[in-house]
């Protein structure tokens, strides 16, 4: 009797042990191939997975163990990065940081636990293979039901397909940074501006931009692309089928190399339920902007028996993608009128609504070792950004109208006070820098043609009622085509806090810098190859603050660790893997350092990353059990 009881207990214990093991997901085999990409108007040779671009959608369930065998059929090294997935660093797929890469003719098997749910994507992290077509989507189903209801779902992957290869684009940008800018100012635009603003203001504006060797149209580095949705051009019309009254979940992924898209579905409101794979409290919008590498999940409910258009216009209005939602195959939605008035950058996007000359070390709440000098490595600081005078709750600059208050923040003085500028570091070389790096710290008053600057003529703008994640008066602040609700980062609130709320132990400030004329992009004025790694300690909570001193938006992606965006919602701050930082703004996020190893940290604009806006992050310490290895084979 005792033997039977003991045997029964052993069987029960074994059953519990087996059930507690992670289930093996369906194994995937991916081949990396040269493929033909046909947009209807052009055919190019690119790179894809399993013979196509985009690659397949990989589906997993939270709690499973993923196994993906990748075979390289190219004549160059390749890799796959699982964008936004939390996994052992050796499985992250970044050659030179997490593994050596996959040589031609070789295979590598990625194995990792699936610890999350939501919408993600994968892409090559080798050379310019991603811009050339090496990308695909990932859907991870939750262990339990989602907190929102839907009847069917579609992945909607946005892409900017260019007729030139990524390597050729990079060569052209290094030779001539405005090579692909098809919206440069002309005699015609001069006449239009003079009729609207007056001749004097228009002449002043042109002189000022010319003296800085910049263009207010420099919003998109790459134009001349065809916008794709799920690999289909607007003429090829990808179509998702629905039945009227169904709730349809659309999983938007921006897999573009360089293009931000403004997305709308005329006639339908969109309820945003996820951002970067993490559930958010539902917010209903008419339009949203999706930065490169971001994902948004929305739910729509078409009521009528007709086709609806998915319209995605580029932020600079130089291109678009289009697709249809329809009740039957073969239907095509009517395309809405394109917005042809492309936005223009303003002095606000140069950081001129910020305190350009202030000595940051003297700001209340800032410490003397704040990085201010061009060429410094990343510096740890410990200020309370939320309590800084002149800063709002998100750590960004508030309205600059109260100059008396600004005097308390630092000696604004004369715009040409070089003694004050010296406090910020040796800016001598910066005075001759003819490009957009370090705009916030440049002495514009001493630049040719800038001595008697008229802010009104320069269209600086001071609107403080716009999106707080854009500089007040920015030319990039979006507006919905129908005049309705446009999504802001400020609208995002986590459905549930991912981590207990606690103060950060330290802060690291990262200045996003660059030289457009040389097409060099950097962090704190230092390119990746010249920079020291950022070192974090396992178990600490660290606050990062981006200060964008360029006139470009940068989608910043930290591998391996979640980025808790500080948007003023406290414990409900949303959790993301990619954070967009607009020109002339300061944005903060915090991260719980809970993944040991080495991680990439970079701007996700392909040619910015390739030209230096990149760092290695080393997480020191942590459990050895978190380490894992992949397997190679021929």
Automatic annotation (TrEMBL):
Plastocyanin-like domain boundaries: 40-144, 226-316, 505-620
GO molecular function, one term: oxidoreductase activity
InterPro entries found in the cross-reference section: Cu-oxidase-like_N, Cu-oxidase_2nd, Cu-oxidase_C, Cu-oxidase_fam, Cu-R_CopA, Cu_oxidase_CS, Cu_oxidase_Cu_BS, Cupredoxin
Signal peptide feature range: 1-25
UniProt entry keywords in alphabetical sequence: Copper, Metal-binding, Oxidoreductase, Signal
Matching PROSITE patterns: MULTICOPPER_OXIDASE1 (PS00079), MULTICOPPER_OXIDASE2 (PS00080)
Oxidoreductase among keywords: yes
Domain of life of the organism encoding this protein: Bacteria
Cellular component GO terms held in the UniProt record: periplasmic space
PANTHER family, per database record: FI03373P-RELATED, MULTI-COPPER OXIDASE
Name of the protein in question: Copper oxidase
């Amino acid at each position: 009797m005792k033997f039977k009881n003991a045997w029964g207990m052993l069987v029960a214990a074994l059953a519990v042990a087996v059930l507690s093991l992670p289930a093996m997901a369906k194994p995937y085999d991916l081949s990396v191939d040269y493929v033909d990409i046909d947009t209807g108007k052009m055919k190019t040779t690119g790179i894809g997975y399993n013979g196509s671009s985009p690659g397949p959608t990989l589906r997993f369930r939270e709690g499973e163990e993923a196994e993906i065998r990748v075979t390289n059929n190219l004549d160059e090294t390749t890799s796959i990065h699982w964008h936004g997935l939390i996994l052992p660093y050796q499985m992250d797929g970044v050659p030179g940081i997490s593994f050596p890469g996959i040589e031609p003719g070789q295979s590598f098997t990625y194995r990792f636990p699936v610890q999350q749910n939501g919408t993600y994507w994968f892409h090559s992290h080798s050379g310019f293979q991603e811009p050339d077509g090496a990308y695909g989507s990932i859907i991870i189903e939750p262990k339990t039901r989602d907190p929102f209801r839907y009847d069917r779902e579609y992945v909607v992957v946005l892409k900017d397909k260019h007729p030139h290869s990524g390597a050729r684009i990079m060569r052209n940008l290094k030779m001539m940074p405005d090579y692909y800018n098809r919206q440069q100012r002309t005699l015609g635009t001069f006449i239009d501006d003079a009729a609207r603003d007056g001749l004097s203001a228009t002449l002043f504006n042109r002189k000022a931009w010319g003296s800085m060797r910049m263009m207010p149209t420099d919003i998109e580095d790459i134009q001349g692309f065809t916008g794709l949705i799920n690999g289909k051009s607007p003429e090829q019309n990808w179509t998702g089928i629905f039945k009227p009254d169904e709730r349809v979940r659309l999983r938007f992924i921006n897999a573009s190399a360089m293009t931000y898209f403004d997305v709308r579905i005329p006639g339908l409101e969109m309820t945003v339920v996820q951002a970067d794979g993490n559930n958010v409290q539902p917010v209903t919008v008419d339009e949203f902007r999706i930065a490169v590498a971001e994902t948004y999940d929305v739910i729509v409910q078409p009521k009528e028996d007709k086709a609806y258009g998915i319209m995605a216009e580029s932020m600079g209005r130089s291109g678009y993608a289009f697709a249809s939602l329809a009740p039957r195959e073969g239907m095509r939605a009517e395309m809405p009128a394109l917005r042809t008035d492309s936005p223009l950058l303003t002095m606000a996007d140069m950081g001129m609504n910020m305190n350009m000359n202030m000595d940051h070390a003297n700001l209340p709440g800032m410490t003397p070792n704040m990085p201010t000098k061009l060429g410094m490595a990343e510096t740890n600081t410990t200020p309370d950004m939320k309590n800084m005078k002149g800063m709002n709750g998100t750590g960004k600059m508030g309205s600059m109208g109260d100059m008396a208050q600004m005097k308390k923040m630092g000696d604004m003085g004369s715009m040409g006070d070089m003694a004050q500028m010296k406090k910020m570091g040796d800016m001598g070389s910066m005075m001759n820098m003819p490009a957009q790096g370090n705009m916030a710290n440049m002495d514009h008053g001493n630049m040719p043609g800038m001595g008697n600057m008229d802010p009104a003529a320069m269209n600086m703008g001071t609107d403080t009622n716009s999106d707080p994640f854009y500089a007040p008066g920015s030319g990039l602040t979006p507006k919905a085509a129908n005049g309705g609700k446009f999504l802001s980062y400020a609208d995002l609130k986590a459905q549930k806090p991912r981590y207990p709320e606690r103060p950060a132990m330290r802060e690291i400030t990262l200045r996003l810098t660059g030289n457009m004329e040389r097409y060099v992009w950097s962090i704190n004025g230092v390119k990746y190859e010249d920079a020291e790694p950022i070192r974090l300690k396992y178990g600490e909570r660290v606050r990062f603050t981006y200060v964008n001193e360029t006139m470009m938006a940068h989608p910043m992606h930290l591998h391996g660790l979640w980025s808790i965006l500080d948007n003023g919602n406290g414990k409900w701050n949303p959790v993301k893997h990619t954070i967009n930082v607009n020109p002339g703004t300061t944005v903060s996020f915090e991260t719980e350092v809970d993944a040991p190893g080495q991680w990439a940290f970079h701007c996700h604009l392909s040619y910015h990353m390739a030209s230096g806006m990149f760092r290695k992050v080393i997480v020191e310490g942590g459990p050895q059990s978190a380490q894992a290895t992949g397997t190679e084979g021929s």
